[in-house]
Amino acid sequence: MGNIHGGEIAMQIRKASERFDQCELRLIQETFKDLSHLSRDSKYIDKETFLQYFPLPGLLGERLFAVFDRKNVGRVDYEDFICGLAVTCRGSCEEK
After folding, report:
1. How far is 89 from 46, CA to CA, in rounded Å?
2. What is residue 30's predicted lDDT score, i.e. its pLDDT?
3. Sign of the alpha-carbon dihedral angle for 85, 50, 47, 60
4. Longest dimension (CA), the chain
5. What is the pLDDT of residues 9-45, one digit of tens each?
6. What element of type H or E holds 21?
7. Does the structure show a pLDDT above 60 at 3?
8. 63, exposed or middle or buried, with CB in 10 Å at 0-12, 13-18, 19+?
9. Dihedral angle over CA of 13, 17, 23, 28, nearest 10
10. Torsion-angle region of residue 88: left (phi > 0), alpha (psi -120 to 50) or beta?
11. Any idea what DSSP says for residue 54?
């Protein structure tokens, strides 16, 4: 089962990545790296750091974080980050 899950994750990242050009992907990777280093665990972006980078007031910020935190664990990994950006920036009306 682990391989199936890993394969699904890889497919999700690939599909999300296809919505961006190479320059944008480099910027996304650099942004994730910078934000994760500001967080408590350098493998993830914690909620506090996320809300500082995306400073939306109150419920709007909470909802945006929830879109990115797809696993509902209170933090965003690279998979969550790129998939969240793909939906919010390049997603269809239905996806949004």
Report:
1. 21
2. 97
3. negative
4. 40
5. 788 889 999 999 999 999 999 999 999 999 988 899 9
6. none
7. no
8. exposed
9. -50
10. alpha
11. S
Give Cα 78 to chain centroid, integer Å. 6
With residue 46 as reference, give the H or E element that holds it: strand 45-46
Give φ, ψ of 57 to 5 degrees.
Answer: -70, 140
- For 32, 66, 79, the CA distances from 60, given in Å and listed in that order, are 21, 10, 22
Identity of residue 39: S
Contacts 24+ apart (CB under 8 A), 66-70: none
**How confident is the model over 61-84, as pLDDT tens digits?**
999 999 999 999 999 999 999 999
Buried b (16+ CB within 10 A) or exposed e, 33-50: eebbeebeeeebbbbebb
The amino acid present at 26, given as its one-letter code, is R
Is 78 within 8 Å of 45 (Cβ atoms)? no
